[in-house]
């Protein structure tokens, strides 16, 4: 897909941001880290979304005042062309890593609970090819597919929360709030990189959103809705399972639909819900891969995102298969280090925004603006 003219609306862009944030905070998460000392995910996960939203709004305001309508122009205006290209590389890697984490968790979910007699690489290939097709067809296809599946995706999440309502128990929230303030702050910072990338990927295509004002409102709508849904979902999970069990549990939202007290018309609704959740995961991965390819093209010159899309999808696919072939511990350590050192990636666009703000202030004082 050529990086030339293409337009999406507020609904499509807000859907991409919201679905990406929800999948990052509910499906693509490390249960051992999130629940090891207690369960306060319904507090710090929505908080990490809102903190990331505040940071992105600061960056967008600096971009709007300086006339930089895309992320690559922000780096170029702040650091110069050569240093700006170097500063964009960590964000490209962040988008690829985000796609990897989401695809890995969904492939593991399907392999563990549905097609457990099938080969891991066969399932991964099917998921990767679908994600490749979406990202290969471009931004309009990704965004409108996301908006199309959003109602059923939300309905599947709500169904997963309502089906096991008889199993909810308020005592499972003990000890409340689950973690100390220091631990919640640490977990919030650790999760920032996962939520920050979902909104930063939109800044690679803000020129296709009819202006920065639309991009701001899209991020605001998507982030607030995702924070509300995340808080509701994690609170329901906290009342369904003890935090000790959650620390060793894979995909608690999926497991919630399997603890019904009695069978009925909604028995095995989990497989139907998984279909819509998987589609959301695939579109989210395509969104990240397309964002990384777009940022690469705009920083390093290619006019077509398709070669980058193919290359980054292959990189992601190799990583997905490698983690299942005896390298799980290494990729788990990568997941941990990404969260620990992710603040360095987050700081790059914030530093660029600060540089532009200082320059603009100096220009105003000197009478040049």
In short:
76% of the residues lie in helices and 0% in strands. With 369 residues, it is mostly helical.
3D structure, described in words:
The protein has 369 residues and is mainly α. The protein contains 14 helices and no strands. Helix 5 packs across helix 6 and helix 12 packs across helix 13. The protein is globular, with a radius of gyration of 20 Å.
Low-confidence sequence ranges: none
What is the succession of H and E elements? HHHHHHHHHHHHHH
| Large-scale geometry | globular
Instruction: Look at the helices and sheets and give the structural class.
Output: mainly alpha
Mean pLDDT over the full residue set:
81
* Secondary structure: helix percent: over 70%
End-to-end C-alpha gap:
38 Å
Strand content: under 5%
What is the total tally of β strands?
Answer: 0
Radius of gyration: 20 Å
Number of helices: 14
Main sheet attributes: strand count, strand direction, barrel closure: none
Q: Which features characterize this protein?
A:
76% helix; mainly alpha; 369 residues; 14 helices
How is the topology of this model organized?
Elements (H helix, E strand, L loop, with lengths): L9 H18 L3 H5 L5 H26 L4 H9 L1 H33 L6 H18 L1 H24 L18 H20 L11 H29 L2 H4 L5 H5 L12 H32 L5 H19 L3 H39 L3
Helix pairs in contact: 1-7, 1-8, 1-9, 1-12, 3-8, 3-9, 3-14, 4-5, 4-14, 5-6, 5-8, 5-12, 5-13, 5-14, 6-12, 6-13, 7-12, 8-14, 12-13
């Amino acid at each position: 897909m050529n990086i030339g003219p293409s337009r999406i609306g507020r609904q499509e862009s807000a859907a991409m941001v919201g679905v990406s944030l929800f999948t990052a905070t509910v499906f693509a998460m490390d249960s051992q880290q999130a629940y090891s000392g207690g369960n306060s995910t319904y507090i710090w996960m929505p908080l990490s979304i809102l903190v990331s939203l505040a940071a992105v709004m600061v960056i967008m305001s600096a971009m709007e005042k300086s006339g930089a309508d895309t992320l690559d122009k922000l780096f170029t205006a702040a650091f110069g062309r050569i240093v700006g290209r170097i500063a964009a590389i960590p964000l490209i890697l962040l988008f690829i890593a985000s796609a990897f984490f989401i695809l890995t968790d969904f492939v593991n979910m399907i392999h563990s609970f549905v097609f457990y007699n099938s080969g891991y690489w066969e399932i991964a290939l099917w998921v990767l090819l679908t994600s490749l097709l979406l990202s290969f067809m471009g931004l309009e296809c990704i965004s409108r597919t996301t908006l199309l599946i959003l109602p059923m995706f939300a309905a599947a999440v709500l169904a997963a929360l309502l089906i096991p309502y008889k199993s909810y128990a308020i005592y499972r929230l003990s000890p409340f709030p689950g973690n100390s303030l220091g631990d919640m702050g640490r977990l919030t910072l650790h999760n920032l990189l996962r939520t920050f990338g979902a909104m930063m990927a939109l800044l690679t295509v803000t020129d296709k959103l009819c202006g920065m004002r639309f991009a701001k409102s899209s991020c605001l709508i998507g982030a607030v809705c995702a924070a509300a849904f995340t808080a509701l979902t994690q609170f329901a999970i906290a009342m369904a399972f003890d935090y000790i069990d959650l620390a060793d549990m894979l995909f608690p939202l999926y497991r919630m639909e399997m603890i019904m007290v009695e069978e009925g018309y909604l028995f095995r609704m989990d497989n139907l819900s998984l279909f819509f959740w998987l589609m959301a995961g695939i579109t989210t991965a395509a969104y990240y891969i397309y964002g990384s390819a777009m940022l690469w093209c705009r920083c390093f010159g290619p006019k077509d995102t398709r070669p980058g899309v193919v290359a980054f999808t292959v990189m992601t696919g190799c990583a997905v298969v490698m983690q299942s072939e005896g390298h799980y511990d290494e990729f788990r350590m990568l997941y941990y280090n990404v969260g620990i050192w992710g603040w360095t990636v987050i700081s790059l666009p914030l530093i660029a925004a600060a540089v532009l703000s200082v320059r603009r202030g100096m220009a105003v004082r000197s009478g040049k603006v």
